[in-house]
Queue: 2 jobs
Job 1
Amino acid sequence: MTEDNHEETKDPDPPREKVSFAFDRMTVARFRETFPNARWSDSLQAWTVPGKTARKRIDRWLASEADRRAPYEEERGRDAYQFEPILSPYLQVYDRGFRIKTPFSRTVVDELRQIAFARWDGDDKVWEVPYASYDDLQQRWEAIEEAAKRAEPEERRKRAEARKGTEEEAKTKRRMSKRGKKRLPVPSDDLPPLARPVATVAFGIVVITEITGELVDPEEVAEYHPDADDEYVWAGWRAATLEELVHTWPARAEPRGYERVRGWWQPTLEELRVARSSAKSRERRRTNRDADGTSP
């Protein structure tokens, strides 16, 4: 076995979840005691914790830390809210702090994850933020609310109406037509792996099924990758299954500039989360259709 093949068959890094909180020496000490394998990431400006159950363990730790916060910090957050409240249909007050419920938006999720001790309540489908983190919440609220408004179905419909007849709509239709053909342009000298989920600029996470070798017209390449100047060929693809997505290790870092120009890269954890959710929905709809078709 060659050294290159040996590198390709090595097990990738385990999935990691990130968490950030206000620096405090004692808090960090408790965190390191609970998560001895955690590592600090300068690029993410957050701690990363390995393991498939890392998110649940982090959420439990965040909840316990929120309980430990000194009473005066919670009182200070309550006073700050009373003095300068956030008035929004997306925010509700409850006994321990705030609940935030919005249409799905990646921006909202990213902003809330930067707030100390914010946690996702999967049962009620809301984010919870303690009173003690009100200053953080207030600083990020403008971005959160703006993203939530843009994610409302009516706002999405208005944007779709505004795009009618524009070059943007025509471009979207061309891409949808190409999606139906399930073809992706890839650089001839840097091909993606076959039969393994990869993230793409145009179609999200897909599995490459074949490299046809057919050259792509430069104008079509420019539509997908305006900064590319390499020779591209067509690759066939299919949607990744839920099982494939579950068993795909995430990339350790966000894709670099070259990877985006190239058009494919190893998926990040956030990309995998979105793709897994979509795959679950597809499988649920397929199961329901099959059940309806076989019912008496």
Job 2
Amino acid sequence: MALCINQLGKQYAEDIWGIRDITLEMDEGIHGLLGPNGAGKSTLMQILTTVMKPTTGSVSWNGTDIVESPDAVRPVLGYLPQDFGIYPDLTLEEFLEYMAALRGLDAETASARIDELTKLTNLVDVRTRKLKTFSGGMRQRVGIAQALLNDPELLIVDEPTVGLDPEERVRLRSALSNTATDRVVVLSTHIVPDVESTANKIAILDDGRLLTHTSVEALIDNVAEMVYEFVVPRAELSTIRDQYQVCSTVQRSAGVEVRLIAESPPTEDAEQVPPTLEDAYLDAIDQQHEV
């Protein structure tokens, strides 16, 4: 299975492009699509799900152009959009039965899939509860269940953890990880820990362009031996921000503990620390803005 994107672009107005010149190939596993808000992630998702047509370039699924032949991918596609709607007066079981019928599943197949997916998403005990009683995190897990009803070969999820508390975010990431076998999963988000804990490869978008598509390990290696932590007086923090890519700050009694990226120690007392994916991501975005 392979999703191939070649020189893809979407133009909204004369000088406004949602995405531009994106080329990458995704095979089995979870591919994190990471970028700040407005980077073009949702535009790309809408093209991959055949909701929107691109202005330039092509997308192929197993060698077939899905822009010209969208039915080549629709039967094997599962999609959880950023704004997932439900029918609040239906129970979970009724809702999944309805969605299964829309996708042409017979009653026996639908029943078996619903049993399997409520276990996968940890929703077995609430099958008979109405959806209007579900928390935000539970609704998102319902979204994953409905996206998997047809056992899709291509699963696309757009910002699935936005607005969730930490516990629900962990549950949702676990559910996604458990779905990744024998399928291509595209996880679009601006939340770095979501992809750090689930993705095999990461594609970074910024300003509508692809910055990199590589493994988590390779991306982190880009900032190896370049991450430092040290404490500075609060009055010096703005100067530090002007000089370096600051990854995070924490208030301490002695001042502000700063974590940053630098090619050499920024101060005599700066301690070199192991890099994280968030460090590497922020560095990639910063490098793009300096170009």
